[in-house]
Amino acid sequence: MTDKILPLLGRRSVRAYLPDAAVSEAELRALLEAAMAAPSAMARDPWRFLVLRERADLAALADLLPHGQMLRQAALGIVVCGDPAQAHRQEISYLLQDCSAAVENLLIAAHLLGLGAVWLGVHPNEDRVTGIRRQFGVPETILPVAAIAVGRPAEAPEPRTRFNPDFVHAGRW
Ligand SMILES: Cc1cc2nc3c(=O)[nH]c(=O)nc-3n(C[C@H](O)[C@H](O)[C@H](O)COP(=O)(O)O)c2cc1C
């Protein structure tokens, strides 16, 4: 049965990319389409996406993300943001859940397309949130939640399971 979920187990963080290997507009469209197919509370779709392709912009984002240095070699950087006014009950928690689902869908799509990608933490690091707003003209009303580096993979981490039966409570905790 686990072989049926191999495409999911094969989604791994890829942090090394081939130099000068572009991601096409059609691939970018597919990534964004996958992201926007994620579950969203009351289907409010509060996610918004800032797409960075210019080398200088990728370097500027890397300057803001201490654990995002692979962005310097990436073909694409995507900052997943949320609009709190559009979230279910205007609650940040719903916004974060919706945006996280979008990030995961995008990562799985990247893997299915043969691309490499990694989730880069932004929220709740206030310096990263304000730095991204300032650098890329994101309005104060919009919350940058996470960034994703995407490129043609130069490494191939093995599929793996992290299943742990200790984390599962059957019937009653
Ligand atoms: C909220 C969040 C923030 C993360 N931030 C970073 C990051 O800043 N840099 C990075 O290289 N990986 C980051 N990761 C990726 C995790 O390190 C990675 O998913 C984890 O080690 C499991 O490995 P896998 O993705 O290969 O299964 C982040 C993941 C999540 C969910």
Can you describe this structure?
By secondary structure, the chain is an alpha+beta fold. It has one domain (21-155): NADH Oxidase (3-Layer(aba) Sandwich). Helix content is 33%, strand content 16%. It has helices at residues 6-9, 25-35, 55-64, 92-112, 126-136; strands at 47-52, 76-82, 116-121, 143-151. Strands 1-2-4-3 form a four-stranded antiparallel β-sheet, sandwiched between helices. Helix 2 crosses helix 4 (92-112) and helix 3 runs antiparallel to helix 5. The longest helix has 21 residues, at 92-112. The protein is globular and about 50 Å long. The mean pLDDT is 98. The protein binds flavin mononucleotide. Residues 12-13, 15, 67-68, 118-121, 157 line the site of flavin mononucleotide.
Quick structural summary:
By secondary structure, the protein is of the alpha+beta class.
Question: Which characteristics define this entry?
Answer:
4-stranded antiparallel sheet; alpha+beta; NADH Oxidase; 5 helices; globular
Tell me the CATH superfamily: NADH Oxidase
Q: What's the CATH class label?
A: Alpha Beta
Structural class: alpha+beta
Bound chemical compounds: flavin mononucleotide
Number of helices: 5
Strand order of the largest sheet: 1-2-4-3
- Stretches where pLDDT falls below 50 for ≥5 residues? none
Mean pLDDT: 98
